[in-house]
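Consider this:
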Amino acid sequence: MDKKQTAVAMKLLKEAVKPVIKSKTLQDTVAYIDEALEYFAHDRDTQMYMTLFFDFMQDVYEGKQAERVDKIVHGFITDNSDEVTARTMRSMWDYLAEPVDRYFFDTMRSYFVRPISKAMNSFAERIGTWMGNDNALPHSPYPPHTSWSKTVKNYARKFSDMSRQARQSLAFAADVLQEQDQARYSHNSS
C-alpha cells in the first residue's frame, strides 16, 4: 500500500468511525461504566462490604471457615455465659460443628464458590488474552495477593483508571471531530 492508498483508507475509516465516536449513547454508556467502576473502586462502604464478602468466600474456598466459625462461637459462648452453661454449649457446638461444616460449607463450596471461582478465572484469562496479556495489567497466578479482596480492589482500580482514560479519550475525540466538522462546514459556507 502506498501513501495515497493509506491516506484514502484512513479517511474512509475516519468517516466510518465518526458516527460511533460522536454517538451520545456510546458516550453515556462509557460514562456510566466509568462512574460505576469509580464508585466500586473508591467508595469506603462498598470496599468494606466487598472485603468481607470476598474474604469469607476465600475462607470457604480454602476450607478455613470452620476454624473461624469455631473461634467466633467459642468466644461468644465463653463471653456471654457462666462456666457450666459455657461448657454445655461448647460440647453441643463441638458435636454440631462437623455436620455444619459438612452439610453447609461443603455444599456452599461445591455449588456456589467453586463454580464462581472457575467462571471468574476463565473470565480473567479471556480478558487477559483479549488484551494481549499486557504486563501492565495485574495478571498473576492464584494467590496473587494475600486475599481475594485485595485482588479485586487491585483489578477494580486498574479497570477504573482504564475506563476514566477511555471516557476522556472518547470525549476528546468527539470534540475534535465536532470542531473539524464545524471548521469544514464554515469553510464550505464561505
Summary: The longest helix spans residues 83-130. The chain has one domain: 19-189. Residues 19-189 form one domain. The mean pLDDT is 77.
